[in-house]
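Async update (no meeting this week)

Hi team, since we skipped the sync, here's where things stand on the single-chain job. The sequence we agreed to prioritize is pasted below, unchanged from the tracker. I ran it this morning and attached the output directly underneath so nobody has to dig for it. Comments welcome in thread, and please keep replies under the output.
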Amino acid sequence: MNEASYTIIGAGLSGLHLGQLLKKNPAKTIILEKSPGLGGRVATRRIEGLGFDHGCPLIQDWPDIKSFLNHYLPDPVLKKEQDDFYLTGGMNQLGKAMAQDLTVHRNVRVSYLKREDHKWIVMTDEGPIFQSEKVVLTAPLPQALELLINSDIKLNDENRLRSIQYSKGIMGLFIAKDLPSLFKKIHPEGHELFFMKKRNLHPDGLVFMSNANLSEEYFAQNDFEVLPIIINKIQESLGTALSYSSYQIKRWRYVKPLKSLQSPYLEVAPNLFLIGDSFLYPDIRGSFLSAEALAKVL
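Output:
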């Protein structure tokens, strides 16, 4: 059995930031992440060996966000375009930088939590079992709630937690010809087009991010049904036909909370905590600030 003082479930921004803050404490901290990547939706995918920012292509500017980001990344990597930040060379650099010197177990999916002798036992699909004094769940709240319910943990405010729902996202990644020399273009309906060449990624890369309404309507449709809708929106934005050699469709079930809880974190059982973008602000601010608030009391 793997033992630690703190087990953080999820290597998104809130989990990694909390892990870095807890490094000041000599107690052992481990992070469990179900996917092979780091940073959650702040992700970069490679096609033909070249990058596409396909999850969270921009980080919205707000007071102090630059100081948060500069703590992990130097200015030459961090770029600003109008009111947003992006990372030249790929958004996934943020997760990699935040994971430096942390113990992160990737491709490990937590399946069950149970309390024994004042400690938490964390069971995984892959087999390894972890024992910890304190556990922090950082996944999108619907996913965290599912784990808590499957673990038979009684919740006093389940209805309040269930009230937090997320918008969905559909992304289209294209290798295309004759793209304009732009950073970003916005469709009249709010869909966004991002051109990867400006990020020092794929020189012919185009990423289409659908608005929340289209994503909700077509999320369950297969790629062949979604593709012509995306192409039509791209062509409306560009004012010309889209010529592409390959494409991928990526879906994100949890893009942005539709509202947030006003508390910075929740302790749903003794030494079992929830943090993330559902707290304080329904965006990256919640991810960072909820981690900071919890770190002060752990």
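Quick observations from my side:
The mean pLDDT is 95.
The helical segments are 13-22, 65-72, 93-98, 141-150, 158-162, 212-218, 223-238, 284-295.
Reply here if anything looks off.
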